[in-house]
Amino acid sequence: MSKANYTIETDICVIGAGHAGCEAALACSRLGFRTVIFTMNVDSIAMMPCNPHIGGSSKGHLVREIDALGGEMGKNIDKTFLQSKMLNVSKGPAVHSLRAQADKAAYSQAMRAVLEKQENLTIRQAEVTDILTQPEVEALELFADDSGGHSVFEGDSVSSGNAGFSEPSASSEASGPSRTEKPRVAGVKIHTGMVYLCRAVIVCTGTYLHARCLVGESITETGPGGMQRSTWLRDAMGKLGIPLRRFKTGTPARMDGRTLDYSRMKIQPGDPVVVPFSFSTDPADVQIEQVPCWLTYTNEETHDIIRQNLDRSPIYAGIIEGTGPRYCPSIEDKVVKFSDKIRHHVFIEPEGRFTNEVYVDGMSSSMPDDVQQRMYRTVPGLENCVIVKNAYAIEYDCINANQLKLSLETKAVDGLFCAGQFNGSSGYEEAAAQGLIAGINAVNYLRGREPLILERSEAYIGVLIDDLVTKDNREPYRMMTSRAEYRLLLRQDNADLRLRKYGYEAGLITQKQYDYVLYKEEKIREETERLKKVKIGAAASVREILKSLGSAPLKTACSLAELICRPELSYEKIKELDPDRPALSKDIVEQVEINIRYEGYIERQKKQVRQFEKLEHRKIPSRIDYDDVGSLRNEARQKLKEFLPSSIGQASRISGVTPADITVLLIYLEKNRGNADK
Ligand SMILES: Cc1cc2nc3c(=O)[nH]c(=O)nc-3n(C[C@H](O)[C@H](O)[C@H](O)COP(=O)(O)OP(=O)(O)OC[C@H]3O[C@@H](n4cnc5c(N)ncnc54)[C@H](O)[C@@H]3O)c2cc1C
Question: Ligand 1 site: residues with CB under 6 angstroms?
């Protein structure tokens, strides 16, 4: 049986141990399912191939939401950060967002340690080369052997030739089976020929699938950071009728920090008091000695070198096939697209506490090495810089997430889920958020339960997934606060109040954690009401206190809540006027203050949400036949058949579906209420 393959039975296979895969695998195993997580290299678990920071505008919101639901990213960065800052504090709370510089090596090691300690979870360094459906597994002839495993003989339908492999074909055209009986996943195969039998698969291959890295004319067929790329899954996705496309992204060079002159830059320290990402982290545990970042700028000399060599840039020479992210432009793009700008920000960020390597944020590039050497040295402070790792662009295979349901399950194959960069998003936080939801929903699928679908009015994660699945994204999707229409309600400070219940219902949040949120909600409600009820008169003592706080005297009695709304006052500042106040923790006070100060805006947004939910909760039966909906316009009919929206709300966000089409659909559903459900 020398050529025999070997099988192992498990419940869920997670392909990829990046930011998406780690969250997915932890969710599945923590919910009691045997899970195997595959990676090309165990040393790349939760690797940060690009910027050394977690969070930032809107991304900090995602991390808080992941944590509120029971994910790991927030806890992991609280253990491994170098510096932390709350961004946008001069603006309203809707855009306050935490950003922490990470010690990359420590972040990866800490996440690996969590995976290794996790019950029901097996880590496997192997390339997954195929995803098997039920008929393919049934075609495997299985013979029990004495080690409790099974053997598979060559010549069965799964593979042909030695080790059953043939070179992956160039085209990624989908050639999948007819749509009558939807295929269902039943296993994965790895490069050794071993088969893992399972009932759900989550694909999180990130930037590895058919990846190639470009530094000018030098092109290497590797994954990020020189890691081995993966190749075979391209054919497997084609076999399953799931077409792929090419996206690209880029990263700047890494420098030897000892060769930089920081006296020519502006120091960027962290916040004096650090706020943790995780609601479970004790704030006292994150008050550490921080490592600064530094600010410098490009200049006309930098821009000239780039302009003179644009023909050698793989992006401008048309060598790169993949589409790149508009919101993470390379320095070449910035120089070409913003030619009026005389300088661009460059942030020097530490890669770790125990390395000299620093990251040159703001100058990602794929220019040839010799051009990189010259362009970086024009930047003040980098005159004598030594490049440790070149800047490069990477292009890779990913899917169009329109092929997914809002649960992140594929429409084409039951039990097959996708998450992360492979879905066409960009960013650690976006990837982790999708991984967590895909993990929770793979478990719901196996339990025969309804999937967890967060609405746009509930979470940035809801906005992220709805945009990926419903909108026509032609470039890597990056989260931004402007994408969230209800952002005043989706603040990073209230993620626990919005989402803990879903984490608790999924089984990832403990009773104790959930009880605390219920207690917190109650205390917030009580205190807000009390502050509205307690009146302060215009007595001399009050006038004195208000004067000491630089606030105008009262003409008539007013409530404590009205006082708190004065820009120069706050809950903390009026404590002398409120001797009977209860002792409340900082997180509760923060909510009370925001609820009082922004009450009008919040109520208005809640009213908009009630309007939004009317359409969002008008479900469209999955068996609807759009050919039967008479007066739909052809474009709308074609788009609705392609996207298969689950609600009128989602249908109304599909480009090419007009309000008139929505009216037609609503009338049809009303007339046929109950028929299509049969
Ligand atoms: C060069 C570069 C620049 C970037 N620039 C930015 C940026 O500017 N802004 C931004 O927001 N994000 C950027 N990113 C993206 C960011 O790194 C990713 O968003 C994030 O890492 C995606 O996480 P993921 O879990 O989806 O995939 P990755 O983190 O890519 O993890 C993929 C995992 O899948 C495994 N794998 C792949 N194929 C197989 C297989 N067949 N079998 C077994 N294991 C497999 C790999 O070993 C790895 O563990 C950049 C990434 C790179 C590489």
Answer: 15-21, 38-41, 44, 49-51, 127-128, 204-209, 224, 230, 233, 249-251, 328, 394, 420-422, 426-428, 431, 478
How does 271-308 read in b/e, with b if 16+ C-beta sit within 10 Å? eeebbbbbbbbeeeebeeebbbbbebbbeeebbebbee
422, two tokens: 């492979």
Handedness of CA 17, 23, 28, 29 (dihedral sign): positive
For 314-360, the pLDDT digits (tens) are 988 889 988 888 888 999 999 999 999 999 999 999 999 999 999 99
CA atoms of 59 and 75, how far apart (whole Å)? 15
Report d(CA 117, CA 30) in Å as an integer. 11
Q: What is the pLDDT of residue 28?
A: 98
Of all protein residues, the one whose alpha carbon is nearest to atom 13 of ligand 1 is 427
Per-residue pLDDT at 321: 85
Round to whole Å and give the CA distance between 382 and 261: 7
**β-sheet with 81-87: strand ranges across:** 53-55, 97-102, 81-87
Identify the pLDDT of residue 218: 97
| Contact yes or no for 31/219 (Cβ under 8 A) | no
Angle between helices 73-80 and 104-117 (to 10 degrees): 130
Ligand 1: nearest atom to the Cα of 423: 26
Q: Using alpha carbons only, what angle is made at residue 81 by residues 504 and 119, rounded to the nearest 5 degrees?
A: 40
Mean pLDDT of 280-305: 98
pLDDT tens, position by position, 77-94? 999 999 999 999 999 999
User: How do residues 302-316 score in pLDDT, each as one tens digit?
Assistant: 999 999 999 999 988
Question: How many degrees, rounded to 5, is the angle at CA 497 between CA 495 and CA 498?
Answer: 65
The confidence score (pLDDT) of residue 171 equals 43
Select from 133, 148, 123 the least CA-distant residue to 36. Answer: 123
pLDDT at 177 over 90: no
- Give the residue-averaged pLDDT of 560-582: 95
Measure the CA–CA gap between 623 and 621, rounded to whole angstroms.
5
Across the chain, what does the average pLDDT equal?
A: 92
Nearest to 468 by CA among 675, 247, 185, 256: 247
Q: Which two tokens stand for residue 311?
A: 């023909």
In 474-582, at which residue ranges do the beta strands (DSSP E only) sit?
Answer: 535-536, 558-559
Q: Residue 607: how many CB atoms within 10 A of its CB?
A: 10
For 573, the 3-state DSSP assignment is coil
- Single pTM value for the model: 0.93
Q: How many alpha carbons lie under 13 Å from residue 445 in its C-beta half-sphere?
A: 27
Cα 597 to averaged position of ligand 1 atoms, centre (Å): 41
Q: Three-state DSSP class for 426? A: coil
Confidence of residue 142 (pLDDT cuts 50, 70, 90): low
- Cα 158 from Cα 193, distance rounded (Å): 10
Mark 558-570 as b/e (b = at least 16 C-beta within 10 Å). bbbbbbbbbeebb
Nearest residue to 279 (alpha-carbon basis) of 115, 98, 527: 98
Residue nearest to atom 44 of ligand 1 (CA): 39
